[in-house]
Amino acid sequence: MPNGDSLDSARATLPESSDDRAAAKRAEEVLVPAGLAPSERRLRNLVTAIVSMLTTMPPDTSRASALRYLITRTRTVLDVDAVFLLRREAGVERVVASDGIYTHEFRTLHSDAPGGIFGRRLEADVPMQTRNYLLDSYFQHSEATDLGVQSEGLRAMLGVVLGDAETDESWGTFYVANRSDAPFPAEDVFALNTLAALATSWLNTLDQTEQLSRALHSTRAEAQRAQHENELASRIRIAQDALVQALSGEDGLAELRDHMSTALGRELQAIDLTIQLDLRDRFGAIGDGERALVALSAKSGEPMYANRQDGSGVVVMAAMHQGQTVGAIVAEARQQSEAQRDIETRVLVECGRILGAFLRSQQRARGDYKRRHQDMLAELLAPPPGGLGPMSRTRLAEFGVRDGEPFRILIVDGSESSIATFEHRLELDFGTSLLRGNVGEQLVAVMPERAFSHLQATMTASGARRHGNLLVGYSPKLHPIAIVPEEHELLLRVVQAARASGYTQAMVSLETFGALGAFLSQVTIEPTKRAIRHQLGPLLDYDREQGTLLLETAMKYLDAGHSVTQAARALHVHENTVRQRLDRIAKLMGRDWHHGQRGLDTHLMLTAHRLIGASEQMSIAGPSDDTN
């Protein structure tokens, strides 16, 4: 503690900044005349330091920062070993801030007793001090409190309430402490009490300022929200008026697009996905990336944002009608605030709704022509007795399917989303000119050869995009319409076999399976099934009865060139498992089942079985048929 014998000893209690020291020096020259007693001189120095301390507090600071500033500067001004603040929150008093406190035991002190940690509740404007807390019976000691104080080595303590006696509002109990038994002089008690009163006023002012700031912020936010709502209402009104004008005008979709661009604040594309696209309209183009976003937007009901391959941003909003995607809004994406993005999202949603309503009014909804396609396809795959009539053949000709002209059958297999994305591709390339529809969970299309050539080149080009787990099966080049049902059944088996065998390419045909596939394309299926039954009957029966995988093991073993190691790797089992299965196969089929001509016959029948009956899990594995 300074002894107060000189101004030099008093300066040790002053703030460390140059501005603080200069202000304190000027105050000393006025307030500390020569000849004062040491206690009076120290008191004057303390008051000067406190005034300087409070006047140099940061003006714009949080409550927590203000308390830290108050505690650290109090320790410097009063030149004490430690300063800490006790505060009661949720019924528990604890150490909430400190300076010069080092031990965990003291920092974690807390108490829910009425008297708090030290067992004595202080009154406002009534300081409390002790020269040695541990020996002072005035306090109600507890084992935890004594241990915490002892761990810090604290002895003398001086505490005041940091709060207002009139309002009974308290920031807590403010303590200074030393690690010696020396009592605090009267001038220190007075200085700390004065400091507490001034700090309380300052903290209350700061708290009121924070409340006013929050209220101002809330008012501004509310005004901004009102402004945004007004802007949103204005933009949506523009878009809604555009629908009325587009319906009454001659330009139709083009006029609607222009007005919606005004509502959005920048140029957009309004795309009609229910008709073949007009390539002369530069606003009607849509890329692969945008198509995927259309599907996502249709599912979520919100705009989808992404980056194109060139790095530019794009936003897409689907236009829906009766659960079908009938159009899309496409625009350049821009960096903007959260509030601006919210307005844009709501405007885009409204524009999507308006575009859907417009396309519905024009009777261009996808469902209208999709139903016609579905009916035509159903009649083609299951024609009435006597075959297709002249009217049906005329309708088929509108899709480019005619007797004598080459055409193909396509079966598209995959997840719901991948098939939907692929159908968007067909829509963009062929519009309504392509006959297609859903058969079960698959998409089936019948297209002229020139259209198939374009599609095949697109899907097999280097770097062509794969649509998830999509598998497209295609028939050989066909000419007579009458063979469509039979060829469709054969192609369905090809797709099922390719899917069951883990085929990895995007497109598959009967020719994909090599010479056997070409052979099977020219034979009747039922006799082939009987041949498979005759050759593989014991394995078929055993697998069906025992739930084993002998048939698959035999196939993998022969495919691997009689390598047990490679067969085990393909089957994802141990080599010993493969050997055990091979022993069982030998007992059922004979030891020469995989040698010579018999091995070739077995391999051919296994391959034919996979191609013809993979999806049926051998519906032909019933009672043996002795007919050869």
Automatic annotation (TrEMBL):
Residues 66-199 form the GAF domain. InterPro entries: CdaR-like_regulators, GAF, GAF-like_dom_sf, PucR_C-HTH_dom, PucR_C-HTH_sf. It holds the Pfam family HTH_30. Residues 1-22 are annotated as: Disordered. Residues 550-607 form the PucR C-terminal helix-turn-helix domain. Gene3D superfamilies: 3.30.450.40, PucR C-terminal helix-turn-helix domain. This is Helix-turn-helix domain-containing protein.
